[in-house]
Amino acid sequence: MARYYCNICKVYEYFDEKGDSKNNIPPGTKPEDFPDDWKCPICQADKTHMILDDKKEDSSKGATVSDVMVETLINWGVDTVFGMVGHSNLGLANAFRKQEEKGKLKYIGIRHEGAGAFAASAYGKLTGKPAVCFSIAGPGATNMLTGLWDAKMDRAPILALVGQINAQFLGRGYFQEINLKSAYQAVSAWSQIVLKDSNHAELSALAVKNAILNRDVSSLIFPDEIQVASTTTKSLDPDERITPLDMVPSKDQITTAINLLQKAKKPVIIVGYGAKESMPKIIEFAEKFNIPIITTFKAKGQIPDSHLLACGVLGRSGIPVSVWAMDNADLLLVLGASFSQHTGITDKKLTIQVDYDPNALAKFHKIKSQVLGDIKITMDILMKDVSMSNENLIPQIKEQWEEWKKEKSVRSQKDNKKGLSSAFIFEILNKLTPSNAVIALDVGNNTYSFGRYFECKEQTVLMSGYLGSIGFGYPAAMGAWAATPNRPIIAISGDGGFGQYLAEVTTAVKYNIPIKHILLNNSELGKISLEQKNEDLPVWKTGLHNPNFSKYAENCGALGIRVTKREELEPALKKLFENKGPGMVKIITDSLLT
To answer: What are phi and psi of 331, to 5 degrees?
Structure first.
């Protein structure tokens, strides 16, 4: 693999064994023999500034601590890194480079470490295995903290690998010195500083193991000189090192749940995000006994809205169908949901709660039947042992959906001439969005509108659930692409959220990440304006001054389309979804957008 160094932007470019077919450059070509119009893809410098680096790795130096630890991470299933290379993580970056050149690792160089952490969080939410976010000491490390808290609060596995200044300077007020162990202690379920005499392979293995089993944050802090220290230790693999989490509920708990189910006439299932891996079994159980299924907002898409038993989302982003189903129920079977304020699950109904986390059971109020165990295993037992003669509510569910769709249609037709309404926007998106897409959401009124008006098919929805962090959407789409590169990737955000990490459009262009970005632009932090109005406060400091985002996308090298009229929306979205690379449709929207 040839490696070329640009003397202007200081970035390496790699051509694989076949060369650069796009620019008709055979493998091993000297820079002076590049085509005359060739430009560095990063800074547009001409070929005279390119240097061919054909030096081979010096195998006589042996493995470094970073080599062994990165190889161990890969052995344990880590295959993706989102990071920024800098002066206090060069040894670790070099280990990543070696593995990427071997085809064992995908490294995505982001523009902001916070975006890298959000991307890695989204990767963990989709796959259940950790990706790496990677930074220098000091500001790079602190930039990652928000994304790490997002992963922690949504129970997503993630690895943070952080450079640190040389150990001999610690405690002396050195440039970019902060106490990283202290800074990362609160967010990490497991965190260690890598020392000279550490068992380096074991630390890497434990980092991955803790992230996966705890569904949480693991962090490793690497003093600069340790990264390049030689070592004779070997990497580890995960054989017989991961404990299965197949937790079988107790007989007494199952018996209580069965007795309640068999007495119920109008039970309803409520699924949360924690039930996502068990949905086929849950749907099978619901179909056997004709039990309606409601989802929390975080669980949107876990059952298609077109399913005969689906009643949509409950809570602040919910719809009337779900409220009717819960109000009509005489028993709630709650699977993998938290009962937090936003879920809207009543505490006034007889309830069975199933969860693998004992702290989640009866967390906010008394629960008649608490079942501690794996949801899929629990549903298998209930499927076999329960016999029910409950009422068939499918005709009534259909009627409720018909009424809601009529109401949505009425809202969609309204036009106040101040921008497109959310009901109309999501009506068109319902028609055009690929059924197998991954949809990454930001926060704000745009997100509430998605929950209310978009009807999921087989799409997977990603969001910053419990942290609710603005800016999540676009970086999360990058993580979704890394995790599922063969699925359509869509980001939906408001202008407030997108403004936080808009530089990552250049990352998408650089790596040809085909994110289809729907930007709802109302030049306002609309959710905050609405909250101020609801509190009888004047709307204050929520207005935004924006660039022309569609032109900005074009300047970055992506497709950019601006929509201001209703008749422009459908053609624009069709063009966006047909585009092979990254692109954006910016829609001028009603400032309320709810």
So the answer is: -155, 135
pLDDT one-digit tens code per residue, 86-112: 989 999 999 999 999 999 999 999 999
Those residues whose C-beta lies under 8 Å from the C-beta of residue 233, and which sit 6 or more positions away, are 68, 199, 200, 201
What CATH number should be reported for the domain holding residue 22? 2.20.28.10
| SS3 state of residue 162 | strand
Let me know if residue 594 belongs to a domain. Answer: no
Short-list 13, 44, 112, 149, CA closest to 505: 112
* Cβ atoms of 252 and 276 closer than 8 Å: no
Integer CA distances (angstroms), 372 to 361, 379, 450, 559, in order: 8, 12, 33, 49
Host domain of residue 508: 414-588
Q: pTM for the complete prediction? A: 0.88
Q: Is residue 558 within 8 Å of residue 581, measured between CB atoms?
A: yes
Number of domains in the chain: 4
Q: How many CB atoms lie within 10 A of CB 55?
A: 7
Q: What is the pLDDT of residues 175-202, one digit of tens each?
A: 888 899 999 999 999 999 999 999 999 9
How far is Cα of residue 13 from the mean position of the Cα atoms in its chain?
A: 28
**Separation in Å, CA 517 to CA 21, 231, 489:** 29, 46, 9
User: What separation, in Å, do the N-terminal and C-terminal C-alpha atoms of the chain show?
Assistant: 52
Nearest to 378 by CA among 282, 244, 499, 287: 282
Q: Tokens standing for 321?
A: 């169908």
Cα(349)–Cα(369) distance, rounded to whole angstroms? Answer: 12
SS3 track for 240-304: CCCCCCCCCCCHHHHHHHHHHHHHCCCEEEEECHHHHHHHHHHHHHHHHHCCCEEECHHHCCCCC
